[in-house]
Amino acid sequence: MKVTKRVLMRSVLGAAAAVAISGAAWAQGAPIKIGLLATLEGPFAAGGADGMRGAELALIQRGGTVAGRKVEIIKGSSNANPDVAVNATRKLVEQDKVDIMVGPLSGSEGIAVKNYSKTQPGVTFINGGSGAQATTLQDPSPNFYRFNTEGAQWMVGLGKAAIDKGYKRVMVIAEDYAFPYSQVQGFMAEFCRLGGKVPVKAWVPLGGKDYASTIARIPKDVDALLVVLGGADAVNFLNQYEAAGGDKPMMGGSITVSQDILNYRGKRRDSLVGTISAGPVADAYDGAEWKAFVADYKKHFPVEKGGFPSPSLFAFVYHVNMKAALDALDAVKGDLAGGQMKYREALSKLVLKGPTGDIRLDGNRQAIGTTFVTEVVKDAKGGLVTKVLRKVDNVEQLLGIPKDQFKIGSRDEPNCP
User: Fold this and answer.
1) Which domain holds residue 73?
2) Confidence at residue 46, expressed as pLDDT on a 0 to 100 scale
3) For residues 317 and 54, is the Cβ–Cβ distance under 8 A?
């Protein structure tokens, strides 16, 4: 009997200890798992890698924890193909059981992942770098949030800058998918309204290698080219245009003058000096928050460890989206219970303190933020950077166009031949 009592007492004490340990673990909170998806293969691989760096920096700045809970990042890779992006996202959500998804990078990927998010109402999806208009403007998903402004918003002001430079007739050369459609629409909406003409649009395949036929189509009577190509596509075009003796002034899409392009090695690189563009970042912006962000990026990702001399556009947009994910987690003290509804409410109400200013969301969970009109210049070390020509705050997704008149950018919209 005494032995039984002793065994019983040990069992009770052991159970109490187990409860105490479990209670402590619960109070501390299990790790929060965030899936992070970027294009680490294909034409945007360099930008995708920098996007990862920007997202990781947001977590490093918090010491790897939020509200006393460790945050674990589980990475996935795509190649700018929507089906590949969805499959990678599905793996992170359904197999790795992440609580929150951040990504993807490319425009059509974003639309596909937005559509997939509707099948996973228990997971919150936050964009990575994708900039297609339709992701949030057309058939939005209630659990998909985007804290970066998108491709059309990024081009606000460039149409006027083109007219001011004397560019009245412009040929567009852009990749044939959703994000460049948005960029071209953002440029043309203003450019056409001010009297500009676009006689030719050349839509080229993503991942293209040969631009000879496109270069041969450039009319003699255009004043400039608007080149909306990213990653390896931009590098291939620039090298081939140089070899063909091209001499038209160029304007760049937002991703065409990002640091992953400005740091490539090629003859055409120096001729980018003077190129005007627009986007959510400007390398030489002198805002205090931007300077702090750049310094922190350089500290953790110096050039000798694979970083760029200044964070690319992709590092910036992934950073703000991951920062939003973490700031909202902090606001609810890591509480993701109840279908993550408190967390989503916190995201919707969040005024994000970003490196270039405050970012807030509209009714479609789409960012309203800052755009810079820029020019490529050489810095003191001979590197290429973008300097600010104009800063435009509070840029909304409809670009100031009445809702009943607004049309999402496409191959044919807008049109001012």
Assistant:
1) 32-148+286-368
2) 94
3) yes
